[in-house]
Q: What sequence folds into this?
């Protein structure tokens, strides 16, 4: 009794052989492509001031006034010098990937701490007002179009600062995760079998 093979067995053998030899590399390339796409989504969100489509809370009038007093006219939140935006990176190690702000310091400040403070909010920060600061605050309030400071700590010799939450990582991630499984599997399939299918 004989065995008869029906179908494209040679092609099936090619596909399986290629998959067996190239699977880890294909997974690595698919991971990198997905991670780079997420990084681009975060960077675009910061640039457009709407990560994941959610608008970033605008800056306070006093912050804008302080920027004008130092010669900077930009009004975008989180990208005064673009250190945070430009630091977004992708690190691929084995079959895991990191997308976000690396643990490094720029101008003496930890970018991870800055990212965390803005992502989740921070405060209260109590600052004792010196005479020099009092003079600066009068100029700042005048530049902001305010009669006097008011707010928390006013009249007690301190200024209380709160940094409101301006999420830029979580909204971008939530947007990017939609369809991620299909994109990832599609990338692997195209990488492994693209020329043979």
A:
């Amino acid at each position: 009794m004989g065995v008869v093979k029906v179908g494209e067995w040679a092609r099936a053998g090619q596909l399986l052989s290629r998959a067996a030899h190239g699977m880890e590399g294909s997974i690595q390339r698919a991971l990198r492509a997905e991670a780079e796409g997420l990084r681009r989504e975060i960077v675009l969100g910061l640039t457009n001031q709407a990560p994941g489509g959610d608008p970033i809370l605008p800056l306070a009038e006093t912050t804008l006034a302080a920027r004008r007093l130092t010669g900077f006219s930009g009004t975008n939140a989180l990208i005064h010098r673009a250190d945070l935006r430009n630091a977004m990176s992708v690190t691929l190690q084995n079959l895991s990937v990191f997308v976000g702000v690396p643990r490094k310091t720029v101008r003496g400040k930890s970018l991870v701490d800055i990212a965390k403070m803005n992502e989740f909010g921070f405060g209260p920060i109590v600052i004792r007002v010196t005479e020099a600061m009092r003079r600066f605050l009068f100029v700042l309030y005048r530049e902001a179009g305010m009669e006097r400071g008011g707010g928390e700590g006013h009249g007690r010799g301190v200024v209380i600062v709160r940094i409101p939450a301006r999420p830029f990582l979580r909204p971008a991630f939530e947007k990017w995760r939609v369809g991620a499984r299909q994109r990832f599997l599609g990338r692997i399939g195209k990488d492994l079998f693209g020329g043979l299918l």
